[in-house]
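Consider the tokenized backbone below.
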């Protein structure tokens, strides 16, 4: 009887430890999207420079698929910086020209890239 009681306590302790680990891992994960358009522009610019799929995925609302996000990151390399002048991100070349625009939207207080629009739609 003593052995079964010890096994019960050990099982309970392991379950509690597993629950704590899962809660800590989930709470340290960064929130998707960004707090404002300028932060979204900076985060997207970093994702484009590093061609970081995980960072790009975190900035897109919904799940348009990895191929679409990779395409967005590759197409946006036409510029040297990203600005947020309104409800879109503007990809700016080194000489100040605009090589593309990406629509953005606000959802639950966070800003995201709009995954359902043409990635560089509205090229001037």
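A designed sequence for it:
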């Amino acid at each position: 009887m003593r052995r079964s009681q010890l096994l019960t306590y050990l099982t309970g302790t392991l379950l509690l430890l597993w629950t704590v680990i899962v809660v800590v891992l989930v709470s340290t994960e960064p929130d998707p999207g960004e707090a404002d358009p300028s932060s979204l522009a900076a985060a997207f610019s970093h994702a484009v420079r590093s061609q970081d799929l995980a960072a790009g995925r975190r900035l897109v609302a919904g799940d348009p698929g990895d191929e679409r996000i990779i395409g967005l990151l590759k197409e946006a390399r036409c510029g040297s910086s990203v600005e947020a002048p309104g409800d879109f991100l503007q990809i700016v070349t080194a000489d100040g020209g605009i090589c593309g625009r990406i629509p953005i939207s606000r959802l639950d207080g966070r800003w995201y890239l709009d995954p359902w629009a043409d990635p560089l739609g509205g090229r001037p």
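Residues 37-113 form one domain.
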